[in-house]
Amino acid sequence: MIAVEDYTTITSEVRKKMLNKFQEESKGPMAKLNSSLSGKNIEEFLSCLDSAADACGILVKKGDKKKERQVLFQHRLALIEQVKVTEDAALVLHLTSVLLFQFTTHCMLHAPGRCVPQIIAFLKSKIPEDQHSLLVNYQSLVVKQLIGQTKQKEDEDVDTMGDPSEVPEKASEDVRKELQELSTKIKDLVLRARKSSASED
């Protein structure tokens, strides 16, 4: 066994030195695996990994596609249930964008709220233009609402005198009303897609 203290220092030269210490029957597959690391084809790497693992007597468990589909389906159902019951605009946007990502890529995604703009940008080429523009519009309203809430808290902390806060309060009320109107449309992006895909099956 070769001990390496810092795994970031394993360069291609270090790997070649390590290959020389392998037994002859496993040296060939390990050399192919090493050369596939510099390639750009993941399938080639995975096939080399399988042959190298076999040569070394390591059992690599294959992925269970049926189990993966079940986990993906359960995750999607859980997110859809959350979308149905939530009223928080930021959470609706977050859940909807994650669900749309899952619908279009068939991959599960766990992402914090700060990644929602990147998810929406990714979805631009994956969903119809009208749905994407609806998401972008809803996102801008959510940002306005969050900025308004932050300013309102700051104003409460300063405790200003008079009525200058009525103008921002009116604007925040308008944003809140727009968000309420658009929330059902945003939720329908994933709930309608769910119903139509269920009717197709």
TrEMBL record:
Coiled coil: none
Protein origin, superkingdom: Eukaryota
UniProt cross-references to InterPro entries, sorted A to Z: Ufl1, Ufl1-like_C, Ufl1_dom
Domain E3 UFM1-protein ligase 1-like: 1-62
Disordered: region residues: 153-174
Protein name in UniProt: Uncharacterized protein
A Pfam cross-reference name: UFL1
Residue ranges occupied by any E3 UFM1-protein ligase-like C-terminal domain in the UniProt entry: 68-189
